[in-house]
Amino acid sequence: MTASPNQDAAAEIARLGAIVAEFRRRLELSPGSLFPAHGDSLLRLGTLLADDGQTEAALAAVVEAVALFRALAEAEPFSFSVHLTSALNSLSNRLHEAGQADASHQAAEEAVLVGRKAAAGQPDHGRFVLVSALINLAGKHMRDGDAHGTVNNLAEAAEIFRNAGEAGEPFLGAMIETLHGAAMTFAEIGAWNEAVESRRLMVSVFAADPPPAVVHLLALALYQAAQAALAEGAAELANTRAAEAAGLARTLVAADPATYRLFLAQVLGNLAGCHHASGQLADGLAVALESVDLFHDSMGNDPAVGVPSLILTLENLSAILSGLGLPDQAATVDQQRAQLRASLEIMLKANQT
């Protein structure tokens, strides 16, 4: 019969507990001795105890491991700074689980300080444990509501990762996942500068051309950030963000028209609205007309996908035409918009039945 995961974990906890007990016995016989394997066993034990819900026991194991690796690092900093950084990272997590937020943050900050020394002394091993420490500290800043501190930590982590070259490739997935999570969190709370910056960092960690999906996420963040700026009355900022989003969308369409043409239409419709808000009516007209043409070319057999955005684009086009002193053309666009809205309502009702 195969053992259950809980049984396996319990067996491993018992095994590591026995190893730790043996090291403690050795220390009684030879006070002052330091065994790196003792610290490694304590860290592994702490993780398993935490997974098992034994929060206090997990914290105690990691506190003991940190003390041991601190002593080893003091005696041989070149050899054990990496180990101490990992131990402090683990301590930060265990303290957080125990509800000791301030102590958790302090441990995370110390992990970064020690990690920088480790990276300077042992670049091949130290830089990735430093990246881990920076990401952990970024998470603390995020929970504290410190968006600036979060982005600074993530930017440093991304730079170290880039400089690692091919050595960083095994960790690329984890790096992308971290930056993606940060961007999503910032977007949810409306911190658009930080959301965009997190997306830029995602693009930056690729040594060669980033995948289109990653560029798309940056363009989408800029598109949403432009809408948010426009809603706040910051027309110039909205215009800048929307223009950059449009530039990225054009590069995506150049490489893969079928996939990204509709997205470009949406982005250009948004840019037209930003141009209108900032008084750039002639530019807005050109962009709005291009957007409308793209919508017609890209909606294909499923018009409902693009109709809501097309309606918004036509609203922007009507406003631009009115601003240019062309009320008859604006009225024609308004009629088209009303017809589309009516058609959309019919399609939505049909889908509900």
Keywords:
single chain, 353 residues, 84% helix, mainly alpha, 15 helices, Serine Threonine Protein Phosphatase 5, Tetratricopeptide repeat
Count up the domains: 2
Helix content range = over 70%
N-to-C series of helices and strands:
HHHHHHHHHHHHHHH
Principal-axes shape call: elongated
Distance between the termini: 51 Å
Q: Helical region count?
A: 15
Mean pLDDT: 90
Tell me the β content. under 5%
The CATH homologous superfamily of the largest domain? Tetratricopeptide repeat domain
By CATH, the architecture of the largest domain is named Alpha Horseshoe
Write the layout of secondary structure elements.
Elements: H1 5-29, H2 36-51, H3 55-75, H4 77-97, H5 101-121, H6 123-143, H7 147-163, H8 172-188, H9 192-204, H10 212-231, H11 235-255, H12 257-277, H13 281-298, H14 307-323, H15 327-352
Helix pairs in contact: 1-2, 2-3, 2-4, 3-4, 4-5, 4-6, 5-6, 6-7, 7-8, 7-9, 8-9, 9-10, 10-11, 10-12, 11-12, 12-13, 12-14, 13-14, 14-15
